[in-house]
Design brief:
single chain; about 120 residues; alpha+beta; five-stranded antiparallel β-sheet; two-stranded antiparallel sheet; 1 helix
Length: about 120
Amino acid sequence: MNKVNINVTKQEKIDNRVNNTGRPVNKKSARQIRLAKQALYNMLNTQFVCGQKFKINNDRTGEYMYVCSDDKDFGSILCAITKQHVCNVQYIGRTKVQGYTFVMGRYINVNINLKEVKFI
């Protein structure tokens, strides 16, 4: 008797069909709007933590950047042009950064809303 060898090949879906639910996504639904906001806030937070330069209140001369400290907890905000210290950062949230600085011996709170910051 002759033996017959059958080669079995598996077809793989290479066009990402497993992620397609078969219906279009309603971009105006509350869930999609919430997911878009979360993606935006995550992108803003990532840009800030990575040290990308930013401007506050469309200031023409002031460019700032965040620099993380050695212990990776929190760092400080520096002037991007002169590399001078501006303030210390004590809290980084999803859309809010809180810090402090001393001006003429007085403790001053600094709050930065990342939704109002323009990254360069």
